[in-house]
Amino acid sequence: MEQRQRAILVDVNINNQSNFQESMEELKNLIIACEFEVVGKVEQNLKAVNKAFYIGSGKVNEVIFLIEETEADILIFDNELTSSQLRNLEKALGRKIMDRTSLILEIFAKRAKTREAKLQVEVACLQYMLPRLVGSNLSLGRQSGGVGTKNRGAGEKKLVLDRRNIEDK
């Protein structure tokens, strides 16, 4: 039997939202639907989200401690994260980071059976990934151009190639 991934759910209550607990419960149910095991929960009250990490830097240290304590594999955030927040969190925490949208796409991907459904999920995933390419890949080295290649010459960045591949798909 395959061991389930261990997940910590993370949410920020901005300006004391009235539906905060309902949203956290819904996220927990989505995590369970994706067949992850919920091993921890982190909540924070803020007036505005942290632009670098979504959560405050002190809370990042608290999450590091919780990861070590629970041996979590993945952190799932209730709201959508920017590409820089994803990159910063993955670097600081050393774990896979997901947000609500990517979690829902994961559920659809696991449950898609027909060829058409699988293609629809793939299109949705690619549309979701496209704006998050910036900084998502540490190897943004330059590509060399040449006769008969698809890239447009010396100096084309991997980011441009990745974006073009997604648009082509």
CATH topology of the largest domain: Rossmann fold
Largest sheet: 4 strands, parallel
Strand content: 15-25%
Strand line-up across the major sheet: 2-1-3-4
Q: What's the total number of strands?
A: 6
CATH class of the largest domain: Alpha Beta
Residue windows where pLDDT falls under 50 for at least 5 positions: 135-144
What is the average of the pLDDT values?
82
Q: Architecture of the largest domain, according to CATH?
A: 3-Layer(aba) Sandwich
- For the record, the count of structural domains works out to 2
How much is the radius of gyration in Å?
18 Å
Instruction: Assign an overall shape.
Output: globular
The CATH homology group name of the largest domain: GTPase HflX, N-terminal domain
**What is the number of helical segments per DSSP (H or I, 4+ residues)?**
6
Provide a descriptive summary of the structure in words.
- The chain has helices spanning 20-33, 57-70, 83-93, 100-111, 115-129, 158-168; strands spanning 6-14, 37-46, 74-77, 96-99, 142-143, 156-157.
- It is α/β, with parallel strands linked by helices.
- The protein has two domains: 6-113, Rossmann fold; 137-168, no CATH class.
- The strands form two sheets. The chain has a four-stranded parallel β-sheet, sandwiched between helices.
- α1 runs parallel beside α4 and α4 runs antiparallel to α5 (115-129).
- It is globular.
- The relative contact order is 0.12.
- The model is unreliable at 135-144 (pLDDT under 50).
